[in-house]
Design goal:
The complex is a heterodimer of chains A (481) and B (304). With 481 residues, chain A is of the alpha+beta class. Mean pLDDT of chain A is 85; it is low at 1-24. With 304 residues, chain B is mainly alpha-helical. Chain B is 55% helix and 5% strand. Chain B has helices spanning 4-10, 17-25, 39-48, 57-71, 81-114, 124-138, 172-179, 189-203, 213-246, 256-270, 293-297, and strands spanning 55-56, 78-80, 145-147, 186-188, 253-255, 277-278. In chain B, strands 1-6 form a two-stranded antiparallel sheet. In chain B, strands 2-5 form a two-stranded antiparallel sheet. In chain B, helix 4 (57-71) packs antiparallel against helix 10 (256-270), helix 5 (81-114) runs antiparallel to helix 9 and helix 6 (124-138) packs antiparallel against helix 8. The longest helix of chain B is centred in the N-terminal third of the chain and has 34 residues, at 81-114. The radius of gyration of chain B is 22 Å and the shape is elongated. The termini of chain B are far apart. At the A-B interface, helix 4 and helix 11 of A face helix 2, helix 5 and helix 9 of B.
């Protein structure tokens, strides 16, 4: 179906020259805003256009309200939008367990100085400031928002950036769709792009699926990915080359609110949620939380799916990620239907204290021992992971940024299960062929055992098992319906 | 004899507790920190240059060549002092970060050990108890004083191989480093108790009378980061000295040739049977001072 792409001219309101002859994207908070309205005739297009102008005018004011609040420490007659925005900030700070926060604007100066002087800031100092900023607060009433005195004196500043953009995007969608419904205009779909935000809304009956733009194949390895749902928000955070240089050091740009320092590994993150504010808060939280903890946390949030790609290119996803997106590329039919690749494994030694439990690495290779998929690690302390010596030398030591995603508790006595979704470390389904499942266990007193279970993936059901001798008991693969 | 393992879990100061236990069992590790060269040292060297329990000259040269080109930031075939030090600083930072992570994770375990009743709070009595264990562990004869004459505990031959190297209360030396604040070479029991009380109060950021896991971790991280800062300073000074060593003709530039010359010297110090391999067939070098210490400190990240 044809659609009209409307880029809005709001010459008096925003930073677009008054006499621009061509349609161009609007510059909003330093990013280009693009709004696509689907299946409208020119009259309705114009109507919605005008409505959009009004809405944007109101929303743009948020930027200056925040500046005012940061500069003066108070603002009279705040807009409802500002009050709502600050509420959402607080809400997400709590929900994310302080992985996301709007409170750390006061640290930007320290980091700016660090870049200028080419010297790392004092870490304890930054930590102290960050913790103080997280304590700061403000009073809200319909007639005034004001920082507390302590807050004013502490050098506190709000920083909203992408969260503000997300809020604006959500508001635009809500307003356009509400307006269309009231005016009985049949708007089939709206797609909005602003910075890292991509937002889609479509009528259930409309055929349009949102296509992830901006997510280069390097991040998700799909040439084009579609999201299956009629109302979704996507955020793509590509940190692959987004580091700041301070002297000889390269650091990520996203600070962990709890200590004001960038997290050590800068993963790229993709999030799909029901609205942009959620998608943004989740994205920034995942950039900061340790990978496995982050994935667990996302799975506890309703209606959100995420993909994390470590700086070494290894992919971790929430459970529903692959069913949320469909790919244009051909699905390899090895896992058709409800087949499941179930791995069962057990420890022999049942009488060990917790600190004596083995560290175990579990992974799949091809017949040439090239790593296909790292499944998990029992044990998280890098010092002891080195004891899993074969695994460490071949794979572990060059992929430390993946440990956060792989690591679980040391191996408790008894039986355990694990499923494999047939994907490799880059999220691609593997082809038919011969593979090897590896388990390697190591314990403090030098006990070490490596077990391999060769298998063939042909689409046919099979079981395969091998008996361990020392630490590990029976290792079994069950590939069946 | 006390259950040593249990004690190690109880010390609130940094303990490379698991390593200490391992070294007690693993007879191959060298007993004293600064005397002979150990098998561990050689394995570290082999590891550092990407070898798998053995290292050929070819592998070594390849790794060195990668090192050189990574240091040569502007790709002009020469490493000047700034490039060299910058590259060194960045590698050191990576190693510091790795160790930092390991050590921060350990605080969770240590917190659990000090929190006797596992209620998520360390109250002063629990903190005091762990201090008691700490002091009496070293003061076996119960003299009430720990000083330089106090004998080191029996099995402690543990070599701290970490770059950050926080002082540990497992040794008299480490204990004095931490607790001998007035620098008079000894710590009496009452000195110790007073310092512990102060430490507890400082760690209790919100002054609610107990330490939660967060406060406990913050205190540790602050100490760790202060130590890391010191390490950075001394190591970077060392890097400048290392550059001077490499720069044989003293023209403030290190060429590939000068770099390789140094490399050959390093390899030859390990390949004592001169067969082009560093492996178990080589005898261990006699003196640690002959090994280029700089190389041992910073891991070379070699992509295989």
């Amino acid at each position: 179906m044809k659609y009209f792409s409307i880029a809005l001219l709001l010459s008096l309101l925003l930073t677009v020259p008054a006499q621009a002859a061509e349609e161009s994207a609007i510059n909003l908070f330093g990013e280009s805003l693009i709004v696509d309205l689907f299946d409208l005739d020119p009259t309705h297009k114009k109507q919605i256009n005008q409505r959009l102008q009004v809405e944007l005018k109101a929303l743009v004011g948020l930027g200056s309200e925040i500046t005012q609040l940061n500069t003066q420490g108070y603002i009279n007659n705040p807009t409802k939008n500002l009050i709502e925005l600050l509420q959402l900030c607080d809400q997400w700070e709590k929900t994310s367990e302080s992985a996301f926060s709007c409170r750390l604007g006061g640290l930007q100066q320290d980091w700016q100085h660090a870049i200028e002087k080419s010297e790392l800031p004092d870490r304890s100092d930054i930590r102290k400031k960050a913790r103080e900023f997280l304590q700061q607060n403000w009073a809200v009433s319909p007639s005034k928002i004001e920082f507390t005195d302590a807050t004013k004196n502490s050098g506190f500043k709000l920083n909203l950036d992408n969260f503000l953009q997300a809020f604006v995007v959500d508001k635009l969608v809500a307003n356009i769709t509400e307006f269309s419904a009231k005016q009985k205009i049949k708007l089939n779909a709206v797609q909005i792009n602003l910075g890292i935000q991509q937002r889609c809304w479509s009528l259930e009956s409309a055929v349009n699926n949102c296509v992830i733009k901006n997510a280069s194949p390097q991040i998700i390895n799909f040439s084009a990915a579609k999201i299956v749902s009629s109302n979704n928000a996507i955020v793509v955070l590509d940190q692959r080359n987004d580091l700041q240089k301070i002297g000889p050091y390269k650091l990520g740009k996203i600070m962990n609110p709890k200590d004001g320092w960038p997290s050590e590994f800068s993963p790229s993150v993709l999030v799909v949620a029901k609205d942009s504010v959620t998608a943004t808060a989740v994205t920034y939280s995942l950039a900061v939380k340790p990978t496995a903890a982050g994935i667990n946390w996302v799975e506890s949030q309703q209606g959100v799916e995420a993909l994390i790609k470590t700086d070494a290119g290894i992919i971790f996803t929430s459970k529903g990620w692959y069913s949320t997106i469909t790919s244009d590329t051909e699905e390899r039919p090895l896992w058709s239907g409800d087949k499941q690749f179930l791995i069962e494994y057990q420890t022999q030694n049942l009488h060990l204290a917790e600190y004596q439990r083995p560290y175990v690495a579990i992974w799949i290779t091809d017949n040439d021992r090239n790593s296909i998929r790292q499944l998990l690690l029992h044990g998280s302390n890098a010092r002891w992971l080195k004891e899993i010596s074969l695994w460490w030398r071949r794979y572990g030591r060059s992929n430390e940024s993946a440990f956060d995603g792989l690591a679980r508790a040391t191996l408790a006595p008894g039986s355990h299960t694990l499923t494999w979704d047939g994907r490799d470390d880059k999220g691609q389904r593997v082809p038919k062929g011969h593979y090897i499942l590896h388990l390697e266990a190591a314990r403090e007193h030098g006990d070490h055992e490596a077990v391999t279970v060769p298998f063939e993936l042909s689409g046919e059901s099979f079981t395969a098992s091998v008996n361990g001798q020392k630490e590990l008991g029976v290792i079994k693969i069950n590939f069946t319906q | 004899m006390k259950n040593r393992w249990m004690f190690l879990l109880l010390t609130p100061a940094l303990a490379l507790s698991l390593t200490a236990c391992q070294s007690a069992v693993n007879a191959k590790k060298s007993a004293a920190a600064n005397e002979g060269v150990s098998l561990e040292d050689r394995n570290d060297f082999i590891d550092q240059y990407g070898g798998d329990q053995k290292l050929s000259k070819a592998e070594f040269d390849k790794a060195r060549s990668i090192l050189f080109s990574e240091s040569d930031a502007n790709h002009d075939g020469i490493v000047d002092e700034q490039e060299y030090v910058n590259d060194y600083a960045a590698r050191l930072e990576k190693q510091i970060n790795e160790e930092r992570k390991v050590q921060v994770n350990q605080t969770v375990i240590r917190f659990g050990a000090v929190d006797e009743n596992s209620d998520g709070k360390i109250v002063f009595s629990e903190f005091k108890d762990s201090g008691e264990i700490l002091f009496t562990y070293l003061d076996e004869k119960e003299t009430g004083v720990i000083n330089r004459k106090t004998p080191e505990p029996e099995e402690d031959g543990n070599v701290d191989r970490s770059v950050i190297a926080m002082p540990s209360t497992h040794s008299v030396k480490g204990f004095l480093e931490i607790y001998d604040l007035d620098g008079n070479g000894e710590v009496t029991r009452s000195e110790f108790d007073a310092e512990r009380k102060t430490k507890f109060e400082l760690t209790d950021i919100n002054h609610d009378g107990w330490l939660n896991a967060d406060e406990y971790q913050i205190e540790f991280e602050n100490r760790l980061d202060q130590q890391a800062k010191k390490v950075r300073t001394t190591q970077i000074k060392q890097a400048h000295l290392s550059f001077a060593t490499l720069d044989v003709d003293k023209n403030s530039q290190v060429t590939v040739q000068e770099f390789n010359l140094a490399g050959n010297n390093i390899f030859n110090k390990w390949d004592l049977n001169n067969d082009g391999w560093v492996n178990n067939n080589d005898p261990l070098p006699k003196s640690k001072s002959k090994i280029d210490k700089k190389d041992a400190d910073v891991k070379v990240a070699v992509d295989k």
